[in-house]
Task: structure prediction
Amino acid sequence: MTIRKAVFPVAGLGTRFLPATKAVPKEMLPIVDRPLIQYAVDEALEAGIETMIFVTGRGKMAIEDHFDLAYELERTQADRGKSVAALEGTRLTPGNAIFIRQQEPRGLGHAIWCARDVIGDEPFAIILPDEFMVGQPGAGCMKQMVDAYDRTGGNLICALEVPIEDTPSYGVLDPGTRDGTLTEVKGLVEKPAKGTAPSNLIVAGRYILQPEVMDLLATQEAGAGGEVQLTDSMAKLIGKQPFHGVTFDGERYDCGSKLGFAQANFALSCRDAAMGDELKRWAKALL
Ligand code: UTP
Result:
């Protein structure tokens, strides 16, 4: 079955970016001139996904507005004879943008479960917008995963190597056999205590899951950090359904952290046709 729907959990509080995220959603922070959520949606569209399901919360209205018609802006620019080309891709097909509220930030697993009725009985994708993935044009992270899914079916997560000392911050894979970019998943553990991680392969913000995960999430059991963890429910599918990790061919920036966000902005700004060369000259002189 093709992957037609993607869930974007965007109800988190973004506390690591306070005070910037007091009134502005973390997902609206820009990399150069596009908000993180726009990159995530573009990645889904490139993978052939049609329906975008945003799990939002209070204070996240800017995300809904971003994907709507900006009537005053478009009208004013047109009256001034100015282009609105920069807004291209920000208006989603009517009916294909669905917004659901997670009333309390009870964890990623709970956010995904909030989308259960819209997902129904079909496999679906999940994209965490603050995990910013940069692939070659036409071969973004979700596209690579959908291509892999055509071969494997079942459940897929994006798997990435990190320094072993970083594993306590992530969901970590217990890996089985490896075949090219695919790694069999034998187990998953969320935020393992220091020294106990089964590998240095982490789950990196991209998933293709079977709808049965919703039944497991329904128990609402709290895991690491007192939150309903998606990893715990995914782990229960292992052995019952195929489960693989896909190694992404591209760059990954953890834009949930200030360092990753600054790195992403610097890397993409350096490649920008209008300002890249000048920025690199300036950075060299600065350092
Ligand atoms: P994070 O833990 O990285 O995001 O969750 P956060 O809680 O917003 O950030 P900090 O740690 O306070 O700075 C990963 C993703 O899951 C979403 C977040 O919006 C983010 O995209 N999320 C998390 C929810 O939608 N609901 C939740 O209850 C928790």
Observations:
- The chain has a mean pLDDT of 95.
